[in-house]
UniProtKB/TrEMBL annotation, chains A, B, C:
Gene3D superfamilies: Hotdog Thioesterase
Keyword Isomerase appears in the UniProt entry: no
Classification lineage: Bacteria, Pseudomonadati, Pseudomonadota, Alphaproteobacteria, Caulobacterales
Enzyme Commission number(s) of this protein: 4.2.1.148
UniProt-recorded Gene Ontology molecular function terms: lyase activity
EC top class, as a word: lyase
Alphabetized Pfam families for the sequence: MC_hydratase
InterPro entries the UniProt entry points to: HotDog_dom_sf, MC_hydratase, MCH/BMMD, Thiol_ester_hydratase_Rv0216
Keywords from the UniProt entry: Lyase
Protein name: 2-methylfumaryl-CoA hydratase
């Protein structure tokens, strides 16, 4: 038996199969500093222990996207090493806050399989759960990817596509225990805008643009122990029509979320990922821009509200005119990400 | 009201106005490691808890330039988002040491305003103070920047230019409480040179050269949550005659200070910034060189002295012949920084 | 006397001379996070405190290569600032585990000197020891480098070349006190392969390829406070036939070791460096590949075994056919590293 891991091919997956992913990871202050250096987030809740205590937490929690990247990275060798494309996310819920010192591990259950008509690939649906050192689930999400078959002639189970919710219900959102925005310091947070100031349908251009360099993309990907070959192996990528390494899609999500500070300064704390699509690949060196739309609102407590936000990112394309998809679902040129999530926001009370 | 922050224009500032800056920041061991990785400093006091204890401190303090970058970064969205140029620094004093775990926040007072004759821009003078979680000021400095007017026709207050000291007086220097160089370990520090060995007027070529890559410059800038567009938005910068992103001036300061280890091995602890000027912009990829001159000396305690040092940095220009400004004040080609500061140094006793 | 350190030239070294190196260094969680971001290692023992406790350790130890880089970096200004080439390593032993919070310092003893026939250079052999804050040696290794003479006419001591062991004897390996793989979690470690599954002579292609960018190479080198000019001074390197900065050889070692996870998932803990040779320089941008061969096996305890591994790295050259040296000792094109080490591995018991 070869000791080198070839990854799983489509015919290797079984419905109901549970995969324990490798390399549990203790989150450190070093990871948090690198997250700041790589993406430039400015949300006060993750930046200051003092600010976090004023919000009812013991110390600054780790940005939920850090937990997402750590858990996602662990799944790559088992789920998407032979993937053609990462197709989407759904039903992502952040279930418990993560702090420096917590150790995360991950497992996935195969919840759907559908062979493509060409017989060469199929779509694998997994529900992945990240668990901390006390066995508490900290996040859970569904992802589906198109995976190559090793052998086009291989027999494959009858197809089964899971029913997935369009969005996490507001009633299922789980803000960190103790979270209370009564003493929220709007001046230190950077803007006075509260829950009450955002209207459903409102669009916000985040104005700023940010380049990600190749070295930054690689460091961000290695940090999460994500091993997908397309991000690192230039020798092999030279044979691709693009000739370029692909940037890990999570880099685009985190960069766009950091850019969204300008206009959504008080919505850093992501509570759920309703859906996400990497509309086009991003290559290092392009300038990322972003805009958001408020899709929905919900009250979670007397001081905490939630906004359902659609965050759209583009490359080399400012967003003053909110580039979007047309009625047929085709995206405007330059759009690279469409990311639907819930985030906590202080109520003015 | 738009929720996107357009930054302040010259006519938005008022004399005496106090601005509380966003995003308090807890300094971590991750920030310190990144500082080392990005600039390469080797001063033992910041590198080793054991060395720091032998100098009378509880643990290794954070390099004062880290505190400076953190505080400076916070001011950018409010003070210099619409700046044409960062003109200078003065009266910078490091008032209390910063350790890992401290949370810094920043506020600025507008202490001077002077419209330029063209009516399109003006100079804003601010005194910025960084404060820790106990409300103790850890540093204070004056900065002046040239800022665009939103509306050239806007009326502007009568001009007021503050009187600024040429240098911080030696009597106003505040080394960390407890600092005592009696047991200073010169071998571990890397050189035997003490206060007594440096003569006023002495020039030192630091010999080594160091490239800063674009990715490094961006990471260094994001780490300090400095959002100035010129550092990140290549799409917009492509329209500039340079076609390039500008590197944050603080990167040049920290790189030059790190290079100065070679010849000034025992002067890492900056106590004051007397003045600083970014003579020319620095673009990533150039090799930075540096030289220093001893401008003054002062005894602070039986074991601690201070050197007033002028640190000059160049790009693609070795400094064996100490490139300088001429009598008319014009700098030699290649000079990018002229940075006048006080630093602590052990006395041989 | 100039205060700028010119480094030592060949005629400056004396047999038996002991050099205390500058800049003791407290290892932090930030260093560990950067190590992960720069190389992408996935060995569970260094990644998870929980996993490490299950292996009998209090917390996750620092990867021994971190300790090696820290100690190596300190020696550069004294030993190899004027080196023409880093010729080899031998008798490297990791003597005690290093944890976050430990402070390492380094000293070297000159154990061999041999002038070259051309009279312009000579080979210096040093045994370097890294010591923690309790005075306990954590690692020791021999390195030899070719160093320029300042003055070709300088008289030099009679030559003395030390006898060096081909490999560290299995009986001299010192795994961390308490290390016990009885509860080793193979699922979380990423592969089921135990001591019993590896055969002497077995070759493993690690398949994956990894680019190191210039910014990454520089950050990795600065992080260890390694100042060798060839890594940073592009202005000077432009005069070299390559026109390029050289990447620090330790970057190649750590990158190759991280790649070796794919096939050697349970052998992360290096116990000894038997020998190492940087066969060719590596320049940033090339894709690194690696393969390994099992040279020897040894039982250290009822649950802990050791594998003697030869790790060969190439650039832009996949390793499915195990590119090697021929009988005359000439390496196949593309080979850049040949690194012989002992690593701990769990026994199935």
């Amino acid at each position: 038996m070869s000791k080198t891991d070839p990854g799983n091919y489509f015919e290797d997956f079984r419905l109901g199969q549970v995969i324990v992913h490798a390399t549990p990871r203790t989150i450190t202050a070093g990871d948090v500093a690198l997250y700041t250096a790589l993406y430039g987030p400015r949300f006060a809740l993750f930046s200051s222990d003092v600010f976090a205590r004023d919000c009812g937490l013991e110390t600054a929690p780790v940005d939920p996207l850090v937990a997402f990247h750590v858990v996602f990275g662990k799944t790559v060798p088992d789920i998407s090493l032979n993937a053609v494309a990462n197709l989407g996310y759904a039903e992502g819920r952040f279930l418990a806050p993560v702090h420096v010192g917590d150790t995360l591990s991950a497992r996935s259950e195969v919840i759907g399989l559908k062979e493509n008509a060409n017989g060469k690939t199929g779509v694998v649906y997994v529900r992945t759960t990240g668990v901390n050192q006390r066995g508490v689930a900290v996040l859970s999400y569904v992802r589906w990817v198109m995976v190559r078959k090793r052998d086009p002639a291989a027999k494959v189970e009858a197809s089964s596509v899971p029913q997935l919710a369009d969005a996490v219900a507001a009633g299922d959102l789980t803000p960190p225990p103790g979270l209370d925005f009564k003493r929220y310091d709007f001046a230190h947070a950077g803007a006075p805008h509260a829950y009450e100031d955002y209207a459903i349908g409102e669009k916000i251009d985040h104005v700023d643009g940010m380049v990600v360099e190749e070295a930054e993309a690689q460091m961000a990907t290695r940090l999460w122990q994500n091993t997908a070959k397309v991000h690192f192996n230039q020798f092999e990528r030279a044979k691709d029509p693009s000739g370029r390494r692909l940037v890990y899609g999570g880099v685009v999500i985190s960069t766009a979320k950091a850019l969204s500070f300008n206009g959504l300064q008080n919505t850093g704390l992501i509570l759920a990922i309703n859906g996400g699509r990497h509309v086009s690949p991003y290559f290092a060196g392009g300038t990322v821009f972003a805009w958001s739309q408020v899709l929905d609102k919900a009250e979670l407590s007397p001081t905490v509200g939630a906004l359902r936000l659609r965050l759209v990112a583009t490359v080399d394309r400012p967003c003053a005119d909110f580039p979007d998809k047309d009625e047929a679902g085709a995206y405007a040129p330059g759009v690279i990400l469409d990311f639907d999530h819930w985030a906590a926001v202080p109520k003015r009370g």
